[in-house]
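FW: tagging you since you asked about this chain on Friday. Here's the raw sequence from the shared folder, copied in full. Didn't touch anything.
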Amino acid sequence: MSNSYGTIPVSLSSVGASGEERKSSKNAIFVALGVTVVGLFVFLGKNESSEDTVTHATTASVADVVPEATDEKHWPAMLQKIGGGVADFPSLFPTTTAEASDKGWMKTSETCNPLLGEAWLLGGELAINSPATMYFTPQVGGVSGVVSGIEVDYYGSMQENLIGTYFSEEKTSSDGTYHSLAVALRSDDLCDTANPATPGNAEHIAISPGMANQIVPTHQDSPKLQTDYKEGACLMTMGYHWFQDVVGGAELTYEADNLVPVVPMYDSVDGTLNGIFFLATNAKQTIGSGEYDGNFWDRSPGLSQANTFLDGTNPFCANLCGGCQFTGTEDGMFTTMHWMFKNTQPTGPDFEKCGGARIACGDGFSAMTEYTKPL
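HL: got it, structure written out here
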């Protein structure tokens, strides 16, 4: 059975010369855990029917728009989906409207949402097997729009206590009912064609703009992160995970429904933001012809609520450190959907090593044994 967690290298010796050697500033606890825990969005202006009309990108009526010569780049400069997508692992997703068109995404007829941008769907279809909407700023003149948000549709179970704060009200497509969770990647008016998006923008993560509008710290040294979130494990190719509870804040209640459903991950060396994952409190993957379907959710049977390795699964608590026991999932499983803003894979320039082992905990890199997978 396919398990995307198997893609994490067992150790640095298995990686070879690719990936720049990096020194860690943390002191940890590591484990050779046979797991890669691979895992946005709130409803804002998305059609509530699968009968959305889609069109190719149009050009805003602004004359003679000429981009300024600059070495600055738009953030994020890359968007990598690991653990499940529309192609082989990992998948690069578009960061401009030109790339989106080339990759088969189509702009919908929805009115531009100032908090997220213009909605684009893969193949122009709202479907359970492609439950993500990408948002872009408008194309202006000959200048492509840039990625400005991501929204994930949760078909079936979700955290009902978070409807109206993190999740949208119920919506319907031809595949059934769902709730959406959105993340904005830029601030300001994302529909402004008179003052189009410019490069050099600051990193920005806002969960559920227009509802909770929770701003996620973009650096691990942020006092807000240190105060309001609980530090979890560092996973190779991902980084340090930080969690928040809607009831206890940094003091987790370990009740599945109380977890903030977007989790940030940070670089173990310089503390910068590596990526985020969307969290579901039930199994979201489906089995096709012997393999997990590419429905954007991470390709695995899920992460078990129980701290055991059952039926080829890995425990969700491997994402955290210390005492950890969750309750409250619908079927005993969590599912994740990872989106990375850097190439943190072994062959990438920002290979996330977590000190050299698969999973690390605490202020150092010694072995974490609490969730070691049995041989």
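FW: The CA atoms of residues 112 and 118 lie 5 Å apart.
HL: agreed, and The chain is about 5% helix and 25% strand.
FW: great, closing this out.
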